[in-house]
Structures are given as structure tokens and as C-alpha cells.
Amino acid sequence: MTERSLVLIKPDGFARGLTGEVLARIERKGYRLAAVQILTPTREALAEHYAEHVGKPFYEPLVDFMSSGPVTAVVIEGERCIEGFRSLAGTTDPTKAAPGSIRGDFGRDWGKAVQENIVHGSDSPESAAREIAIWFPGLA
Ligand code: RTP
Ligand code: MG
Q1: Distance (Å, rounded) from C-alpha 50 to C-alpha 66?
Q2: Residues 14-65: pLDDT tens digits?
Q3: Which residues does ATP bind (predicted)?
Q4: Each residue of 54-73: pLDDT tens digit?
Q5: Which positions make up the binding site?
Q6: ipTM at complex level
Q7: To test the ligand 1 pocket, which listed residue (115, 116, 127, 131) has its Cβ within 8 A of the most ligand atoms?
Q8: Per-domain residue ranges for the chain?
Q9: Which residues carry out catalysis?
């Protein structure tokens, strides 16, 4: 089934100049770009986006990190692109992520309070719909 997923190129990926690399990997996989914007997230938007993590030990460092600079928010489209992008991204911990994945090729542990891992991708159709409404409220 054709799906949409919400991808974020996080502040570390943006600052390191990996935006084009990530978009190229999405396109080479065959997914379409439906919407793209660059913005510095507010803590309020992040509280909505990361609602499932509020109260966890890494939540405050996560919001500090995610609001520290520009991110690129992207809506991608394609058959099973939610699972497909999670596979392109690799597992959450960039030290463990497989080489060939975005996190495996470009991520590492920097000894910081939160895992900086280049990208976010929605983890279910319900999350994708919720997240797209947060980042692209006008998108049909
Ligand atoms: P994401 O939501 O960003 O696509 O990543 P994910 O599903 O692989 O990971 P999730 O469990 O949803 O966690 C969201 C983000 O929080 C940071 N994190 N740090 N123990 C830690 O230091 C820790 N755990 C999670 C990561 O940036 C993770 O992507
Ligand atoms: Mg997640």
C-alpha cells in the first residue's frame, strides 16, 4: 500500500552537510519527495512530536538537541516507505547501526547526553499521520 512517512534530518545531519546525501538515498531507493522544509523546531512542536518520550531520562537532552539548530523535515511517499525508510536509517544506536545504513555510515557516539543519529523516520502509519500533521499542517 502506498504510504507516507515523516522524515527529519536532525540538527547533526543538517550541520554536517548530510541533507543532500539523505535526500539522494531516499530518491535512489525510489521513494518520492512530497514536501520539504527547513526550520529550527520549537520545544512545543517537539513535545508533540516526541509525546511518547515525555518523562523519559533522555527526553530533555533530546529536546535540547533537536531545537539546537535547523532540521530538514520531509514527507516521503511510496509502497511500504515507513518500514523502508527505517531500514535505510538503521537502528537507533549509531554505533550499532549496520554499515550501509544512514546511521551506520555517518553516525557515531560522541559521548553526549543523547544519541545523535542523523535522521528520524515515522515508525507506523498512525505515527506518520500524526507527525505529518505536526510538521506540515497544510498538507493534503
Ligand atoms: P526516531 O524516533 O528519531 O526515528 O528514532 P527511533 O525511533 O530509532 O528511536 P526512539 O526510541 O523513538 O527515540 C527517539 C530519539 O531519542 C534519542 N534517544 N536517545 N538512550 C538514549 O540516549 C536515547 N534513546 C533515544 C535518539 O535520538 C532517538 O532517535
Ligand atoms: Mg521513534
Answers
A1: 11
A2: 999 999 999 999 999 999 999 999 999 999 999 999 999 999 999 999 999 9
A3: 10, 58, 86, 92, 103, 117
A4: 999 999 999 999 999 999 99
A5: 10, 58, 86, 92, 103, 117
A6: 0.92
A7: 115
A8: 2-135
A9: 120
Looking at the whole model, is its pTM more than 0.80? yes
Beta-bridge mates of residue 121: 7
- Residues in CB range of 11: below 8 A, 6 or more apart: 65, 66, 68, 69, 70, 71
Q: Which ligand is nearest to the CA of 112?
A: 1
Query: Taking Cα atoms as reference points, which of 76, 71, 51 lies closest to residue 116?
Result: 71
Query: What gap in Å lies between CA 60 and CA 123, rounded to an integer?
Result: 21
- State the amino acid at position 31 in one-letter form: Y
Which candidate, 43, 131, 45, 39, places its Cα nearest to that of 85? 131
Tell me the CATH class for 2-135.
alpha beta
Do the Cβ atoms of 8 and 71 come closer than 8 Å?
Answer: yes
